TrEMBL record:
Classification via PANTHER family: N-ACETYL-ALPHA-D-GLUCOSAMINYL L-MALATE DEACETYLASE 1, N-ACETYLGLUCOSAMINYL-PHOSPHATIDYLINOSITOL DE-N-ACETYLASE-RELATED
Name this protein carries in UniProt: PIG-L family deacetylase
Record-level Gene Ontology MF annotations: hydrolase activity, acting on carbon-nitrogen (but not peptide) bonds, in linear amides
Length: 221
């Protein structure tokens, strides 16, 4: 039986995953979350909008919850900020994230890492989420930016998460729940495999997800 990992304060390690829209988290760090869940890391996911500009809001809400449950997320919080207009709601997003960190984390869990959007993203909502994350999560030791299709031109990862095939399969299964987005090329399994293989090849691994470092306080071993 494997021993349960704890932080230096004796708590269960946790991560916070933040996305602007339904499917952002799954696309950017879905396989990594599956791997962390397998290792008993507590996972809290926060989606800022219902994604109404990309489909029916209620439908997308349900899709995201089904998908994130497949990945092993312990708690899923769907907020209802205005899709495509998050840059106008920066303070409100910061307030919401700070409130979530203060009230929604179990007392025996310590959030050690944040997965959020990349600051060099061409989607205005994604940049706004990055900005809100950096302020609201300023006391968390590690903040990593994940890859989405709207970052592909400029994305240059510095940190790589090695993956087993079953973690990538979980990501693909999760994304298959987003039926409203199923015709988008980047949602197709072959594209997801190609990207994971490419990121893995960059660091001599089989499969990887890549991340940029927004903040990294190294932990003692």
């Amino acid at each position: 039986m494997k021993s349960k990992k704890t932080t230096s304060s004796g708590k269960t390690p946790g991560v916070l995953a933040i996305g602007a829209h339904p499917d952002d988290i799954e696309l950017g760090c879905g396989a990594t979350l599956s791997r962390l869940a397998h290792n008993d890391v507590y996972i809290l996911s926060v989606i800022m909008t219902s994604g109404g500009c990309g489909g029916n809001s209620t439908e997308r809400y349900e899709e995201s919850r089904e998908a994130l449950k497949i990945l092993g997320c312990n708690k899923i919080i769907n907020l209802d900020f205005n899709d495509t207009k998050l840059y106008l709601q920066l303070k409100e997003m910061i307030d919401s994230l700070e409130r979530i960190l203060a009230t929604e984390i179990p007392s025996d869990v310590e959030i050690m890492r944040v997965y959020t959007m990349h600051n060099a993203d061409r989607h205005q909502d994604h940049v706004a989420v990055y900005q809100a994350s950096m302020v609201a999560c300023r006391h968390i030791p590690q903040i990593l930016g994940y890859e989405t299709p709207s970052t592909w031109i400029s994305f240059s990862p510095q940190v790589f998460e090695p993956l087993e095939e079953n973690h990538l399969e979980k990501k693909i299964s999760a994304l298959s729940k987003h039926k409203s987005q199923s015709l988008r090329k980047y949602m197709q399994p072959e594209h997801l495999w190609i990207l994971a293989k490419f990121r893995g090849q960059q660091v001599d691994c089989s499969l990887c997800e890549g991340f940029v470092v927004h903040k990294m306080v190294l932990q003692e071993y």
